[in-house]
Structure formats: structure tokens, C-alpha cells
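Morning - zinc ion inputs below, output right after.
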Amino acid sequence: MQPASSRTRFLPGPRRTRYGLLAALVCSTLLVPAPLMAAGAAPTANPAAAAEVEADVFAPNLSHFTLTNGMEVVVIPDHRAPVVTHMVWYKVGSADEPEGQSGVAHFLEHLMFKGTTAHPDGEFSKTVAELGGEENAFTTTDYTAYFQRVAKEHLPLMMAFEADRMENLILTDEVVKPERDVVLEERRMRVDSEPSSRLREALTSILFVNHPYGSPVIGWQSEIEALNEDSAIAFYDRFYTPNNAVLVIAGDVEADEVKALAEETYGKVARRAEPGARVRPAEPPLAGERRISMADPRVTQETVSYSYLVPSDATGTDGEPEALELLAYILGGGPTSRLHKAGVLEQRIATAAGAYYQSGSLDMGQFGFYAAPTPGHDLDEMEKLIRAELARVLKDGVSEEEVAKATKSMIAEAVFAQDSQQALARIFGSALTTGKTVEDVQTWPQRMKKVTPEQVQAVARKYLSGDPVVGLLTRPKPEDTAAATAPEKQG
Ligand SMILES: [Zn+2]
């Protein structure tokens, strides 16, 4: 977990961890497609943490309550240092945007730093900097969050500032138009000039043809260009209301003092909208293979990716999300996984090969594979490698021993991750804004320990037997550089 430095507005799009609980840890990598996150990106289990694995409940000292205006509050005491992490999470993301206004959730996130009547001209950010604190904000498909990390004595001030901008944001043409240019530039930098990001965007749009997860969090360029003060304020008035927000405070505090402070600050913000149920269009089952191939001379490492739609932690039942987590870990979660062993260590045809389960969404999740060839090998071989390992698991399943080992490693990594105050705050904030409860997170180790090898094979057969959505990132062949950069839709 890297401490947030000055506010960098990154866009956590789809997550790329092997399992959901730790998803929040790698948000800053989000625009990097899975194939480029080589196997080395996997954290290794901490032996010291493994000893604590017996702990069956995460953050047992956590408190959770709701203010009278409907704002949820989570307090996680952590007295190792006199600092606090203060986060406000809104249950709104790009998948909640009105049609034709893709990017408005992220655009509003930028505009939230412009100021209020009481604190104009970016005074909040300046104060955080003067106090030696850190701040950040991020938008995903399902939530938008703002956070500061400061010395504990400054917590009341942070709460007062954040509560103020929940209801008193002031936007004028003067600030809106230049900020829209900032966002357009962000899109050019992060998406348009990155072949891997462009491919990921195109792939996501064919993976979700009806559900709004198919639109990029940052928005389509033409729709960002049409965003204005009115669209931003309408979105703000509809979703930035205390009954749609979750406050998470981790650090050198006790629940009682936070409760009193929260009542004095957030508790006074009027409930000004009823956002209602988050019902998004469903994704229909589609026949046939969908495949996008993109060639670009800037590509340094060719890669292939396979994606499948699967249940998420929030939509899955009967232990299926936990079984999918184990399946991803066994197949492709790091240096001991089947894909890494086969492709990188034994056959030596891949520089990286793995699998992941993106489980943290409010609606459906994704299961993916990726592989990148070593020089002299090609993407056909990478596809064969993935298909072979997938076929093996579909036919023969996984062993009791593999499940036991993977469960132990995953729980140890999760226990280790809790050492980071911010990581812990993010885990609970993201869970509560994506349809899960505090208890769901706390009892995750208990659920993981119940998964059987039969369940792992069953989810593989149920969800990974059909055609994947395939992405191929290549360098143009010398003879056809002219046709190089246009993404091509097929299927
Ligand atoms: Zn941004």
C-alpha cells in the first residue's frame, strides 16, 4: 500500500486483484490492463501474518452506526500512530450516470475541489497541505470517494470541511470549463495515448453491451465535451446526500468521540434527495466469440486476455464468489499458480501468465486470464496455454491440497493487508458502497475456509465453459503498418 502523496486524480476502473477483499489495495493500477500486471505484481504472503491466520474475523474492534439523516459511519480504531484516515464514500459511480452523460461522476469528483461559500477557491486542499496531510479522491463504476490522512487533532476540521462540501458546492462557468479541459487532457493522457488502455476500453465495451459498465469511468470524449455546470450540479443534488454516503474513519480514535463529532458535522447536513435503488440494465447472454485485436507500434509487450462475466461478491450466492476467488488464485494468482508454472517456468514461452477474479462490483464481476509471450513465441501459443490450463481444471478439477494451500495464503495476505490503516478503511468503504455489509467483510475468512475442491470445479464449469471475450494487443506486422491503430470490432 503506497501512501497517497499529493492528490492525484486517478481513476479506479475495473479492479485487477485476484480476490475482492484486497481489491482496494491496487486501485491505482486500474488503467493498466490485467495482462500488463505481470505475475510479479502479486504480493507474497507474509510469514509473520500467517501465524495470525487463526483470527476468523477481520477488524473485530470496528464500530458501525447510522446518523439520523441516514449517513452510515464506520470507525476502526488503530492506535499505533497519532494519525487518522478520514474518508467519505458516496454510493454513486459511472454506472449510475444518466444516459449520454458518461464521465459526469468523475467530472463532479474534480469539481468537488473547487470550493463552497464558506471555503472558496480550493481552500480545503490548501488547508490539508498546510497541515502536512495527504488527500485523494477516486471514482469507479460503483462509488466515488474522498479522503484525507492527517494528524489526529485535525480530524474535526476535516469533518467540518467535508460535511460543508456535501451540501454547499458552488460551481460557475469560470471553474467548470477549465476543469472539463483538465478531464479531456486526462483522457488523452491515460487512455488515448496508451494502446493497452484503448484496448481495455474497447474490450469492456463489448464485454458489457447493455450494462453501463461498458462505458469508461472517465467518459467517452464526445460526452465529456458536452458536460457542463448543470449536468454536474444535477448529479450532485441527486446523489451527494448524507443518506447516500458512508463515513469511514480509521486511526487513533474511539467510536464515541467520532460519533459525537459526526453528529456535530455530518449530522447537520440535510437529507436532500432519495437516490433510490441502484437498478441497472441487465447484460443479456450472447452467443458467439467476441474478439478485438489491436496493433500499435508503441506496444512493447504483446499480450492476450480472456474475460468472462461471472457473479460478484455482491450478486453471487452459495459460496460461488469464494470458489471463484480460489479458482483464480490456483490457476493464476502468483508464482505458484498453475499458469505461471506451466507458461513461465516449465515451457518458458511466457514472460507472464495468470488469472484474476474481479469481484468487487455491485453488479456482475469478471473472471480473466492473461499471458504475454517471450521473444520467439506468439499469441497463438499464449491462447493455447490458457485454454490448456482451463481445460485441465474443467476436466479434472483441483486438489484438496491446492485448495488448502491457496486458502491459507489468501487469508494470510488479507491479514497482512490490514496492517495498513488506509487499506482497511478502503476495504470497508468499498464494500459498503457495493452492496455488501460490514459482516460480509468481517466473516470472509470463515467463508473461504468452507470452500471445497468440488465447488471450485463447479464454478469453473458453470461460468468458464462458454466463449470468452478475447483481447489481443500486438505490434503491427512489418507489411501492414498502415492498418495499425484502429481497434476492430468483431463478432
Ligand atoms: Zn480525474
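Note: The first helix runs from residue 47 to 50.

O.
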